[in-house]
# Entry
Amino acid sequence: MADSDDVFGARPLRQEATHEIGQRLDSLSVEDLIEHLEILRAEVLRLEADLVQKRVSRHAAEQIFGSPQEKSR
# Structure
């Protein structure tokens, strides 16, 4: 087993993939692009789930306090 300081026996550490909107894609491999798509799909799911929760909260508040449109009349 290689020592953690042994650069010859250890596999290079891979950085966790991140995606920056608008970043250049020409240097990414097919595998990298797939990984970026997975990251973005997971982010879309996270945003959609949060949107649903906020809509539920807003609806509950409007049931109690009325909607902002009703108050402006």
Summary: The helical segments are 30-65, 68-71.
